[in-house]
Amino acid sequence: MSIIGVLGGICSGKQLFCQLMKEMYDYQIVYFDQEIDLNKTAMQIYNNWNTPTIITAITTKEQIRVLKKRNYFHLIYLDSPSFTRYRRYCEKHEIIKFEDFVRLDDKQKYDLDFLELSKNCKVYLKNNTNTFEEFRNYLKQQMAKIIRPFRPDWDVYFMKIAYTVKQRSNCMKKSVGAVLINNNKRILSTSYNGTPKVMKNCNEGGCDVCKESQTLDLILYKCMCIHAEEGCILELGITQTRNTTLYTTLFPCVWCCKALLQAEVSRIVYCEQGNWDLSLKIIQNLIKYDQIDIEQYIY
Fold first, then answer.
1. What is the DSSP string of the chain?
2. For this chain's UniProt record, which GO biological process terms are given (predicted)?
């Protein structure tokens, strides 16, 4: 279940991209030229939804509007360095000056309709490879992005929630969001970092660490905030936190790791590495001691 549209600059490799997707993953290619019946073609694609389809030559907002009626459609933007595309243009069409190619390229890229179309792109790919095989290998590495699952897996689902929770933080040093779930994939609690309820918020002067220029690892002991990971377990008893999974946008600090160990959280999924150089060995020893399953999710 995958319908992909592809946009890109002049000679960015759109045709090659379509051919490789057909060759490697059995995609059918549909060209949206001016003569097609848009609604009829779209219905044919929808009715044949089990066949992966890639659509090229998209030129109008109406085409995007019709395609977006199905939420398993997504748009990819493919680009390449200007000089690489210039070289391809000369090989494929005619030899022109580089300055003339840039003018031609700018005319397309900064056309208002094209800019509106490109805003719909959710995935950006860079075709800066030099050979056919290099591009093929690059596409294989990017397939998780290209063929987005219609339904996100649990890690994607909960990490996105953690990033939404993070937006509530008013820490001026580093915003963090966390979500605690049980074995039945039910959310037990969510939290973001911030000062205790009785204090002023960070952005109101409640925590002096926000004013410091040093890294968090050096001045963590001064931090007045309840960290996101702590907040998730504070209002729950150990009977609820035992054998749970914590999703956090940032690798936990040493304080939070100790709290998570005490709460008997069994799995930690984090996204950003953080800057815990001084305390990293302590954290690693703590995790190793309790055999917590910890993994990084590339969001």
1. --EEEEEESTTSSHHHHHHHHHHHH--EEEE--TTS-HHHHHHHHHHTTTS-EEEE----HHHHHHHTTSTTEEEEEEE--HHHHHHHHHHHS----HHHHHHHHHHHHT-HHHHHHHTTEEEEEE---SSHHHHHHHHHHTHHHHS--SS--HHHHHHHHHHHHHTT---SS---EEEEE-TTS-EEEEEE-B--TTS--GGGT--GGGG--S-HHHHGGG--PBPHHHHHHHTS-HHHHTT-EEEEEE---HHHHHHHHHTT--EEEEEE----TTTHHHHHHHHHHHT-EEEE---
2. nucleotide biosynthetic process
- Confidence (pTM): 0.66
Output the CATH code of domain 3-146.
3.40.50.300
Which fold, 154-296? Answer: Cytidine Deaminase; domain 2 (3.40.140)
How is the chain split into domains, by residue range?
Answer: 3-146, 154-296
